[in-house]
Amino acid sequence: MTPLRPARPEFRNINVFKDLTTYRLPPAGWVSILHRVSGALMFLLLPFVVWMMDTSLSSELSYGTFTAAFAAGVGFVPGWFVKLVALALIWAYLHHFCAGVRHLIMDATHKVDKAFSRSSALATLALSLGLTALLGAKLFGLY
Questions:
Q1: pTM of structure
Q2: What letters, b where the CB count within 10 A reaches 16 and e where it falls short, cover 14-45?
Q3: pLDDT tens digits for 83-140?
Q4: CB neighbourhood size of 127 (10 A)
Q5: Domains, the chain, ranges and CATH?
Q6: Three-state secondary structure of 36-91
Q7: Residue 65 and residue 108 in contact, taking contact as beta carbons nearer than 8 Å
Q8: Which secondary-structure segment (H or E) carries 114?
Q9: Rounded distance between C-alpha atoms, residue 16 and residue 13, angstroms
Q10: Does the pLDDT value for residue 11 go beyond 70?
Q11: Sign of the alpha-carbon dihedral angle for 129, 101, 42, 21
Q12: Alpha carbon 4 to chain centroid distance?
């Protein structure tokens, strides 16, 4: 006979204003949500990527326009905002890539335990944010 365990709380109707403010999402949950956000961001910024590819590869003159966009801006959009959009795209790609590799490793090795999930999620967050900071520093001219 097994001893009686205390009853676990049941959440049938979650109140967005009361319950979600106190709910702590595990790191794997954050990585999963951010994986979807980064995929959506890459899809939404696809016209920007196509513009960058086109202007950087068409000719020497268009490459000069491309590099000037990051310094002086394009039209009414200032250069710092173009750099910020490029930084968002860099983060989206790096996070989506790292989280995708994490999912592939979990699928290939059948590691679905809680400890590996937590450690790989923290590694994914640290790696994607660290690489984004490194490339962002290069983008903003810190080195």
A1: 0.82
A2: eeeeeeeeeeeeebbeebbebbeebeebbeeb
A3: 999 999 999 999 999 999 999 999 999 988 999 999 999 999 999 999 999 999 999 9
A4: 17
A5: 27-139 (1.20.1300.10)
A6: HHHHHHHHHCHHHHHHHHHHHHCCHHHHHHHHHHHHCCECCECHHHHHHHHHHHHH
A7: no
A8: helix 114-139
A9: 9
A10: no
A11: negative
A12: 43
Nearest to 122 by CA among 29, 20, 42: 29
Instruction: Find, among 96, 79, 99, 104, the residue nearest to 42 by Cα.
Output: 96
pLDDT digits (tens, 9 = 90+) for 16-48: 787 777 778 899 999 999 999 999 999 999 999
Name the residue among 5, 4, 30, 15 with its Cα closest to residue 102. 30
Whether residue 1 has pLDDT greater than 80 = no
Could you tell me the two tokens for 103?
Answer: 């999912």
Structure tokens that stand for 109 in this block:
């090795």
